[in-house]
Structures are given as C-alpha cells and as structure tokens.
Amino acid sequence: MAERYDVALVAVGTHGDVLPFIALGHELAQRGHGVSLAAPAPFEAMARRAGLAFEPLGTVADYEAVIRQPDLWHPQQGFRPMFDYALQVVEATCLWLGATRARGVDLRVVASPLSWGARLAQDLYDLPTATLHVMPFLIESRYDPPRLPGLALPRILPASWRAYVNLGVDAVAVGPFTLPPLNAIRARLGLDPVNRLRHWWNSPSRMLLMFPDWYAAPQPDWPAQAVQLGFPLVDRFGDVPAMPPELDAFLAAGEPPIVFTYGSAMRQGAAFFDTAVQVCQRMGRRGVLLAPQGGQIPKPLPAGLIHLPYAPLSTLLPRSAALVHHGGVGTVAQALAAGIPQLVVPVAFDHFDEGRRLKDRNLGTTLSRRAFRPARAARVLGRLLADPVVARATAAARARMAEGRDAIARACDQVEALGAARQT
After folding, report:
1. Does any domain span residue 1?
2. Which H or E run contains 261?
3. pTM of the model
4. Is the pLDDT of residue 326 over 90?
5. What are the distances in angstroms from CA 22 to CA 78, 261, 359?
6. Is 269 within the bounds of a domain?
7. Are 222 and 300 part of one and the same domain?
8. For the chain, what is the mean pLDDT?
9. Is 390 part of a structural domain of the chain?
10. Per the domain annotation, does 182 fall within a domain?
11. Alpha-carbon distance 336 to 327, whole Å?
12. CB burial string 380-416: b at 16+ within 10 A, e below
C-alpha cells in the first residue's frame, strides 16, 4: 500500500458533482488514508455513511436557496446562481485547508472545478492538488469545443470559430461578475489577479478527467497534466443505497418501464412530469417518475406509473426500456452502463453538450423543453426503441462500460501518485 497521508476532498455542486468525490473518498479510506470531504451541507449524511469526515460549505438553507432559484435552470443564466454560491464559500474553504495544513498534516487535495477556495489554497500554500472533472463540457479545446447551453452554433462552422465564440461568452458573461470578487480576495492574500477563470480553476499539477476516451476523445490542446480515467458509477453512495421494495415489486409486475428524471436539484419540473405521464399513456408503456419533491408529480397517477423521490439508477435502469432525463453526465453514464436509449430534454450547464454527444454516437437523441410534448416525445421514443442502429450502439456502450468500471480505483492511483511525486 502507498504511504498513508490525509486527503481533503472539496466538491461544490449538486449530486452529480459531489457523489464521485464521496466514492473517491470511500476508496481512499479503504486504502488507509485519512479522508475529509468539504461539500454543501445536505451531503453530510451521505459522506458519513461512506466513512468520511465532513466539513459543511454553508448551511442546508444556503444550498436550498441556490437550487430553488428559477434562474438556475435557465440556459444562459443558470451558471450564475451556482457561481455565486462558489464565491460565497471560497474563503471558508481556503481557511479550512490552511488550518488543516497548519496542524502539520501531510495533506493532498482533490477539488471540483467550482471549488475555487481549494485552488486559492494551492496558490497560497503550495498544496499538492488535483482538479477532478466529471464532464467533458468544462474542458476547453479549439478542436472539439463543447456546446454551450442556449448557444446552438451550426456544426458546419469550423471548430476553431465555435471555440472563439465560447471564449467570447466567457469574457462577456462570466468574467465580469466572477473575477472582481475573486481577485479582491487574492489581492488581500498577496496573490496576483486571475485573468481567465476557466483556465485558472484547473490545477497545474494534475487534472483527473472522469469520462472515457470513446465518449470524449482526447484533444491535442488539452492541458498536459490531464489524465483521462473513465466514468465513475457511484449512485450507491446516493440518497438511497438499495432498491426500494415498492419499486422492486413494481418492476417485477410487468414489462420494463420508461424512466423519467429531471435531476436531484430540479424544483421546477412539473411540466416535464406532466408530459411524462401523457407519453406513457400514449405509448401504452409503464413509467417510473423520479423526483425528490412530490409537488412536481401529477396526482393521482394513472395505473402503471409510480413515483419515488430517488432510486439507484444502477439497479433500476438495467430493468428499464429507456431513460428520459435532463442530460446530467452522471445520469448519462448510468444509462450507458445499462445499455438503454436516452432522450435528453436539456435545461442548462452541460446538458446540451451531453445530448449532442449521445446523438452523435447513436445512443439517443434530444428534444428541447419546448418540443417535449406528449405526441412528439412518444414518436421520438418509439423510434429510439425500434431502431436497430441505436440498439447496437447502446449494447456496445454497455460492453465498454463493463470494461471500465474501475475508474474510481484509477483516480485513487492518481491521487497516491500525486502524493508520491510531492515527496520526491
């Protein structure tokens, strides 16, 4: 076993951002390292169930205030509430890491891209730090630029032009409200200003990319410190670690259902789930509706449909026919592992980019929120379920996912190598 040391994990975001860190921490703890997770307060129970010490970033009320903002689910404005939250916890994160270091702890840090306090601590204290990315959307490239939410540039445009537009969006929409407060903190600490947020938030030491090369091919201009590891399948660390008995009974009672989810943080999904009910009725299919808040679900539900706040997708989706969802990368990965087609109804963030990647690989397709209506959605799902090209592509994806299930273990190897490099 590698030499024992302490690892501080810092994750800012929702379930899809935080659960991979909990899985990583669990594996590192199994290897004998001391592990602490700093994350939004609602994730404390999940972290402690995985055996991790926990440092809350803000309160439960702070987190709820963010995810209840309607702008969070706006294609162009969605990033702002989450970036505001990231700014709120910068100093607390940096102080926590500084205090840990001051106790003489041999410390390594793994941080999400929005964990700016960890990058600040790296610059201030020279802490060995890796940035962990769960989505290709946040990796810039002139050769394969990600599709930004609400910005449907024609694919016929050269990639370099689309990348240039992306840079312009950063400069106009992101920099003006994030860089001044961030640089004010840096100035107080005696650090030079940051010019581009999406360049600086990557650790110059190591970047761990948690998606496979067959889903997002490595590009010549990716940072040299980037290491591609594969999808983490980590839902066993989520709200419910096992299949709820009522769902198990429902699945056993009939044909595989269509599963509908709009993400763990969604609070404005009533129209989506209303359409979901009508789609199932039009198609004569059973359906599973996953939503943390029952207020989003029509009542009473017709026969053949069931609502649950949460279910482990790793056990649900292999017994399902298709998945309709927002396009979060963690949900995408679970459907790929199950080998079922996906219909993405994108909202914000990386959803549009993930939908484009699925469509390009014949693994599913997309419908805009406006186009997601019962008749059209039923037709699209019917075509996906009947298309032999989609069936072959999803079967191939399932096989590839089965071959790459040790992504978390490989990420742990990289963290241990980061520590070893520090000691030489």
Report:
1. no
2. strand 258-261
3. 0.92
4. yes
5. 25, 22, 30
6. yes
7. no
8. 91
9. yes
10. yes
11. 12
12. bbeebbeeeebbebbebbbebbeebeebbebbbbbbb
